[in-house]
Structures are given as C-alpha cells and as structure tokens.
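Lab manual, section 2.4: Encoding a predicted structure.

Procedure: take the sequence of the chain (733 residues), apply the prediction step described in section 2.3, and record the output as structure tokens. A sample record is shown.
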Amino acid sequence: MNKNITRNIPRRGVFIQFPEKRGAAEKEDWLQYRIDALKDKAYTSVILLEPWKIREAYNTGLKEYRYIDKEWRNIHFGERWGRRNRTAFFRINFVIPESFRGQRVVADLMLGGESIVRINDVLSGGLDPNRTMLILADPAKGGEKIKIETETHVWSYPDDKRTGTQGDSHPISRSYLATLDTEIEGAYFDFAVPLEVMKAYKGKNPEIYNFLLFHLHTALNMINRCAEDVKIFKETLKKALSYLYKNIYQSDAFRKAGEIHTVGQAHLDIAFFWQKKDGIRKNLRTCLVQIDLLRRYPEFVFCQSQPALFEALKEYEPLVYKRVQKAVSAGQWEMIGGLYIECDCNLISGESFVRQFLYGKSFFQKEFNVNTRTCWLPDVFGNCGSMPQIMKKCGIDYFLTNKHSAWNDTNRLPHNIFWWQGIDGTRVLSFIPSVHFNGSMLPDHLLLNWDKFTDKETHPVSLYQFGWGDGGGGVTYEQLEFARRLRRFPGMPRVKIGKAENYFREVEKKSGDKLAVWKDDLYLETHRGTYTHKGMIKKLNRKSELMLRNAEIFSSISISYGNKYPKDKFRALWKKKLINDFHDILPGTHIELVTREAESDYRDCISIAKQEMVRSLNMISRHIDTSGEGVPLIVWNSLNWTRTDLARVEIKPAWRDFAIYDEDGRPLEYQVIEEEDSKLSILFVARDVPSIGYKVFYLRKGKPVFRDIPKVSKSKLENKFFCILLNSDGTFS
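Recorded output:
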C-alpha cells in the first residue's frame, strides 16, 4: 500500500467541466461543483492499493477455465488487461492501518469489467461500472488483515467510457483503501437530491426551480468549506442541514399530487453480448450486491424473475442461494414472473408457453414457497393475443411489459394500466410503465414516468422500476439514498418502495372496474426483424418443439407395453429448449457465439427426443398385428385428428420393382425421390391414419400398379416424356 493520497484521488461524483469563460457556467453547475466537493470530503483518508496480482484466463464453463497466465503476475494502478471474452482473477492482501480505528473503511475499486468479489474467502459483493465501493469494516478496529479476490469478466459493451475501456482492454482506474465519514456522505445526498429536482424543473417551472436554488445556495453558504478543523466544518455543516430540512424537506410548498410505487429490480439478459455461462455469473454478482443492500437498507425490497437463473445459482453457488432463500422468507426479496425464463412471446408454441409457466412456477413454489401471480416481461419484443388465456389457466392474474411505451416507433398505446383481453375473451390486469425498465431514481426520470402516466384519473399511483439491468447488477446504494429523501419532497409525487405484486393487487381492488380494455395483441413496432433474423434458430426451435411433443406422446403410450417413461430426461430437454426461448436468443438479437450455442442445444434436443420416440415406437410396434402379404409399413399419426398426408420410406437394399397397398388391398401411388445402389427413398400418400394412432401399409415386390411415376433426385426430374436437369449454376436443361 502507498501513503495517504487524499488530495490526489479522482472525484467520485459527476465532475462538472466548466467552460473556459467561468462566467458562462450555469447556476446549477456551481451548485453541483460545491455539492460534489462534499462527496469527495467524505473520504477522510485514502491509500492507493497496489500492486495487485492478476491471472488471466478463458472461462469455458461454470467454474471451468483455461488459463492464459501460467503464474500470477503483478499489475499496477493504471495498467491495462484483457481481450475479448477474457476473465481475470485479481487478488491483493493488506492490513487496515491502526489510524483507521473506529471509522467505516471501504475499498473503492474499478478493476475494469464486472467482478464477483470474495473478501477473506467469503463471497461478499460485486463491482461493475455502476458500483465501485466495498465496505470492509464498520467500525474498523485497526490491524485487520484483509484479502480481496475477484473474478472479473471483460465488460460486455466495447468502449465503455465509465471504465476507460478501449475495445476489449481495461485499465485499473480506481484502487483505493479509504475511511468514509458517513455524516458527510449523508449530507452530500441531502444536498444532491434537491439539486437534481431543481435541474429537472429547469425551463419547466421557474417557481420550483428558484425556490430550490435559493435555499440550496443559502444552505451551502453556511458551510465553512475551508475550515481545517473537522469539528468546525461539521458544526457549520449541521447548521446548513438544519436549514435545508426546515426550508425544503419539511416544507409544504409545491406538494404534488399522486404517488410512484417503485420496484427495485435487475433485468438480466442471460445471453446477449455475452453467453449463457456469463449470464449466470452476472446473476451471482447481482445477488451478492442486492443481499448486501437488503442488510443495509431494511425498507428495501428487491424484485427478481427467471427461475432458470436461480436453478443455476443453486448448483453454482449453493451458499449464496441459501442467502437468497433467507431474504425471500424475510419478505425483502420478491420472486416474480412465473416463466422459467423471460421468453419471446411471438415465436414459441402454446405448449412452450405452458411449460415455461409449469417449470417456472413449480420451482418458485418448491424452493421459495412462492406462488407468483405476475407475468414479468419488461424487455420482450411484443406479445401475442393468446397469452391472456394461457396466463390465466396457469394461475397468472397480472402482466407487465415495458417496451411498447419506450420503443414503438409509430403508435403509442393509449393506456398504461388496462385489462388485456385475449382471443377467447379472457382478461388479465396489465401494466406497461411509461418509461424504460432501467430506472435511475433520479428526479427527472421519476417525473417523466409520472408525466407520461396516462391513467392518473383512473388510478393515482404509477409503477416505476429502478436498478441497472441487461447486464444485471440491479439497484445501487446511491439509488436507495435518493429514494429515502424523495418519499415526500416539494415538486415530486410521493415515492415509495414496494413489491410489484402488491401494486397490482391495489389497482385491482381500488380501480379494477374503471380500467379500459385492450382487445388485440401487444404488437411492438421497433423489433419487427426479430421474426425472421437468424432463421435457422427459428427452424430448429420449431423442430425441437415438435419432436419433444411426439416423443412424449409415444413414450406415454409405450408405458402400457412395459416402457419406463424417461421423465427426468424429458424435463432436462424441455429446460434446455426453454432457456433458448429467451427473448435475446430465439429472436436472434445476440452475438455469434450465442447462435452457435443455441443451434447446438436445439440439435441435442431434437436428437435425444428422436431417440426416445423411436425407442417407444419400436416397443409399441412389437404388439401390432402386421400379418398380411408383403413387408409391413407402420405409419404413425401424432396429431389429434385423422390425417391424410405424404409418408416417406427408405428401402434398404433398394428394390427395383414393387408396389404399395393399404390394409384393404388397394394399391397406392408413390414417387421415388432418391435413388442409390443401396437405398431407395420414396413418398406415398398415407390415407386416413387415425388420430394419435397408426395404420399399416404393405410393400410388395412386383411391377408397380402406376406405370408413369416420375423419378426425382436433387438434380433431376424424369418421366417417360421428359428429363429435366438442374445445373450447378441454377439453370435448367
């Protein structure tokens, strides 16, 4: 560790870049500068932490790595590391100085990327561009030995200005051990909140703007910022805060009607600019961060969806999983959503929808004793009209999605709260928040949510999601500090933190009979291309759905003939398929590595399900009466109605002269579609095959009944009149 460097530490707040002519700075710029100085002053002692030990690797799977560095090497503050898809392990050992005794001691770190943090061998938190602070001791005794270890993955977006990223390389841009004066930091937030409200009203309401400007300016002038004696500084700060609370926080001026019910959450894309294995690590980091915040802020409730992520967490880090279970039991963590993963809602089948709810709700019920009634889909690309019926029959009464209010490029939906009526007339209480789901808890964003909320007269409470998402992480402590001070603030609607499902219950109880009804699908205009982009994924998805369905049907029937139903295998296959229903996988909005992984998963599902289907059909076939002239051909129909369709048969070795007959001895037409020395492939019309059943046909040697049968191959179509060749350049001859 290096010596105390308090005066050299980069500013933690938003640093205002003033114009060259000082007089050109805006009023709020000067206020911002003085208030940010309070945040800097909260660090009373600062020591540079270095050197770190680093070892880079490629993450090849959960807790699986291929190391690039054979040994640990030193890396210093300001030095860069990383390339695309790299993981770096960092570690450092130090002792908290005796001079830090009795104070809150923190590590302020930005190693680059996103970090899962262990402190003294215990998983303790996370770091990312939205959070850099780890509390090490509060209060410190002095002399504590500290070991910090991180697993840090390259930040997912290139050229992130917050981290100094250049392409895929990262610098260590913050590495400090500091004492944090919580009184001064609290004062920073006390001043920062009115400043942000003031800025939100600039050019909109001069009365509120000038009211806050005057009192902020007056209060800040009470602070002796130049006092070398900390006691004198704090005495003046206390007077300033007393003035601020009396004249702003406790004032009845500019009280605004209405209320915003805020929900702390972390939308998490399991795959996007990253692979699924990285999404699982992001969820671990998110859980660690939020568990720590729940301990520090008892009024905070965290909301999270996607059982698939927690199923992986249970396997990946069972001790952290138990901490989540404890938070749920304590009522501070709301498990929501019902769906196994936040899936696409236009491309999947009805059966996939039902399985999503079946596996998702049953996991939450079994593992957390939670029966969620809310479908939570903030980021999906539109919703089909059959969803209300499916949701209601799966025990879902409420529905939330976001993108239609923020992303529709032409038509805005007329309501935020409404009854969504499906094709069959089923209704589900639905909410589309008026702003994006990655909310910041800044007043201008809260006011935007309230001002765009269309249903104030019907129900005087809006819903607002806050917490950083996509790459996870969720709520920050700064957002919770703002939320505490915005509960009742001049010029702002009342702000409270609560559970999402409680909001829906309140709307249903107080305003349900007043809400409008939407009778259509919820079409999202901006993302039209997701229905066709990366078509192979769409094709394999549908093949997986069909093959799993058929395999389950015939495996069920074969139980009567002694077959053991492979329940666990089918469940695993369905889960693999359902994860790839995710709204950034199936629609194709992801990197190429995700495409390859998804296609491989789908092909595994198809192959294994087909093996089970064939095994079951073979077992059933042994109990079918196939006596009759010729080689029996059993044609199966897995549909719910009698079917007439083309059936394909491969004949090995190839027969040259044959005919096909049905059970009544009637000859059937057929067509040769592929001919080789050892194999012949034909199509014939299988008529009236019963639903969920079979019909036997017979192949007999002899001259075909129908003489004029065209021969078809990949490059040739031939009968007795014509021979048409498809040339390699696409022309016919």
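Check your result against the sample. The radius of gyration is 32 Å.
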